[in-house]
Design goal:
2 copies of one chain form a homodimer. With 407 residues, chain A is of the alpha/beta class. Chain A has 2 domains: 171 residues, Carbamate kinase (3-Layer(aba) Sandwich); 148 residues, VC0802-like, CATH 3.30.2130.10. Helix content of chain A is 34%, strand content 27%. Chain A is built from 11 helices and 18 strands. In chain A, strands 3-6-2-1-9-11-12-10 form an 8-stranded mixed sheet, with helices on both faces. Chain A has a 6-stranded antiparallel sheet with strand order 14-15-13-16-18-17. A two-stranded antiparallel sheet of chain A has the order 4-5. In chain A, strand 11 and strand 12 form a beta hairpin. The longest helix of chain A has 25 residues. Chain A is globular and about 80 Å long. The relative contact order of chain A is 0.10. At the A-B interface, helix 1, helix 2 and helix 3 of A face helix 1, helix 2 and helix 3 of B.
């Protein structure tokens, strides 16, 4: 007898027929004694349609009223899914965010969950009902409806699972698990049976798109195992949890990712004075520009001059350029080059901590493929290399082949 | 400085443009110190669209889940209307039924309001905001969302007005008030400046369609004046209240109504025994058939035989016939005739209590027009006559002309 929270996204409930299919699937997999909570997003394009309605009324944005509007999307899908369960002969009850006891802070449009009061959901589960909970929404202490922003429904599912002390949380997606690399790039990519929260977070940060980091962080915080699996098959997917349950760690590296939405910025010939780096990076931070892979180098010929290289997302290039040119008027550095013809490839794995050869093996794999490394950065559980954009596929395959040799 | 609750129906908020027009109108009429609550229905066909979605999932009906679904309709329109106010520069806040403190009983799909907790609405009004409240919905003590059924949004408006001790409640409709008769039938029909709750209830019962009796009853119970007025003009409409505020009662009769959805049933030659009427009318009541205008007559020639005549709605004729034929097998009465070629014309006015000539004047007006009266029934404040269906227009005009002489 397990207590399981299952989350289905908007494309899984896009039509009345798909809603019925979700209900059938949940019932097929349910053991008689299981207690099941289903978290759903709004049907298909509903959220976009609601936004269009608001845009037809006003060109301004209103946080509270927009959340009031958008929250209806999930309220529609939960009621229809509860009806589908009932039609199939299983008692079910739908709950909005506030009914499910999901409280948030007051940041409309991207509220954070501050607490789960699980009593009502538990009471209905214990009465034998399937409980269908609206994802993506909650309520403030003052009683205002909020929405959670990006990754919101996954976050709802993990938070509700944590609040209920569920056995685990299942996230149904259009892929059947977490892969050692993007299967569209690496034909030999392997599905991981297990992966740690930290590895998943690092993979997400470095370009793997399956899970939004937010829900993984929540899972990590509460030690809630997250099972990422396919909407379309019954196979087991990938469990995200604190530690591998298997003694033998099959692969040291858990994934090879890539990210082509990268621009390399080189600020050359900067006076080597305290506070210069602060000036540059605080100006970028103020403009909400995320900076990654920072390398600072002192010139051998002139120790008073440094060069700074870092990467940002390509969408931020124009704003970064104008910020840096403004700073240049004050500090006058030697030169500014921006290169969007780059990509980042990374290897991620908690196992690299006890395996000193990982960096060397990664660089070796790139050298074997005659790929130049422009910048290197490392974290405790990852190594990233900036390379020429055109060589991404080759680089990812060469590295992947090194760590996941063909059987 | 007044506190006014204004209600706009679904056709008034059917599109983003119409929502903006409602917001503009409310602001135009608002005095700086006025505190305004706006109650709105779901946009245009939204409710029908939601019902179609549910029907695509299941052919059964689920009270709680249907209310969860339908309540989204008003939640959409309140958020958009609040945005429209903000766009026009006036602070506004939307509230669902539960946020506005509207509690109901547990009868899903047609819940009755059991209480209004006005604190949150009052706090926002006192902060200078326009409060936009979702009509047609509330919440049970257990926290389940309910909808109020027919006449629900008008009822919300009057209930909220009563809970807030508002000065009055304005119901915006596609007509500009309550008329002395249907203007499509009587070209000379007068708009009433005032009418009592009881008169309005009697008019509604006898065929006038402007207001659902439910909200009028609530207004009567709380003594909340209801101003029925046009969405399209700024003119004053009709005030429904307990007493006329003017000393002189301009017209003794407040309205002449007609109802063509009537069938006359004659049960002839029934044995005159105790319990026979009970048998017939309890069987009809059990089938939810409303019976009106009952006349029982003893035959002069044979005191053991009676004839019974009554009217029902035409939609109930088939069921009534089968019920009566079944009873006929037990009691065996002499004959059963059903006549759908009839109509009911009525005069309504609290003033008739002190004016004994009203009945005579009504009958006289029909006689002047050579119209035969088949059945007569009276209440404290109304007189109804059953006549031949084809003569309705003539009858209504003749009676109207008697009580509202042309200027």
């Amino acid at each position: 007898m397990a207590l399981i929270v299952k989350k289905f996204g908007g494309s899984s409930v896009a039509t009345p027929e798909k809603i019925m299919a979700v209900a059938k699937r949940v019932l097929q997999e349910k053991h008689p004694e299981d207690r099941i909570v289903v978290v759903v997003s709004a049907m298909g394009d509903t959220t976009d349609d609601l936004i269009s309605l608001a845009e037809a009324v006003t060109d301004k944005t209103y946080g509270r009223e927009m959340d009031m509007l958008l929250a209806t999307g999930e309220q529609i899908s939960i009621s229809l899914l509860a009806m589908a369960f009932a039609k199939l002969g299983h008692e079910a009850v739908s709950m909005t965010g506030f009914q499910a006891g999901i409280t948030t802070n007051e940041v409309f449009n991207k509220a954070k969950i501050t607490g789960i009061a699980p009593e009502k959901v538990l009471a209905e589960l214990n009465a034998g009902k399937i409980v269908v909970v609206a994802g993506f929404q909650g309520i403030t202490k003052a009683g205002d409806i909020t929405t959670l922003g990006r990754g919101g429904s996954d976050t709802t599912a993990v938070a509700v699972a944590a609040g209920l002390k569920a056995d685990h949380c299942e996230i149904y997606t259009d892929v059947d698990g977490i892969y050692s690399s993007d299967p569209r790039v690496v034909s030999d990519a392997r599905r991981m049976k297990e992966i740690t929260y930290n590895e998943m977070l690092e993979l997400a940060r470095l370009g793997a798109g399956v899970m939004h980091p937010r829900s993984v962080e929540l899972g990590k915080h509460y030690g809630m195992p997250i099972h990422v699996r396919s909407t379309f098959t019954h196979e087991q997917g990938t469990f995200i949890r604190e530690e591998y349950t298997m003694e033998e760690k099959e692969f040291v590296i858990r994934g090879v990712t890539h990210d082509t939405n990268v621009a390399k910025i080189a600020v050359l010939g900067v006076p080597n004075r305290p506070g210069i780096a602060y000036k540059i990076f605080s100006a970028l931070a103020k403009a909400n520009i995320d900076v990654d892979m920072i390398v600072q180098s002192i010139r051998v010929a002139d120790k008073d001059i440094i060069d700074m290289v870092f990467t940002i997302a390509q969408g931020d290039v124009a704003r970064a350029r104008s910020i840096l040119e403004k700073i240049n008027q004050e500090i006058s550095f030697g030169g500014l080059t921006i290169d969007e013809n780059v990509a980042k490839v990374s290897v991620v794995g908690a196992g690299m901590l006890g395996n000193p050869g990982i960096a060397a093996a990664t660089f070796g794999a790139l050298a074997d493929a005659s790929i130049n490394i422009e910048v290197i950065s490392t974290s405790e559980i990852s190594i990233s290399c900036l390379i020429e954009a055109g060589k991404v596929k080759q680089a990812v395959n060469s590295i992947h082949n090194r760590f996941f040799p063909a059987n």
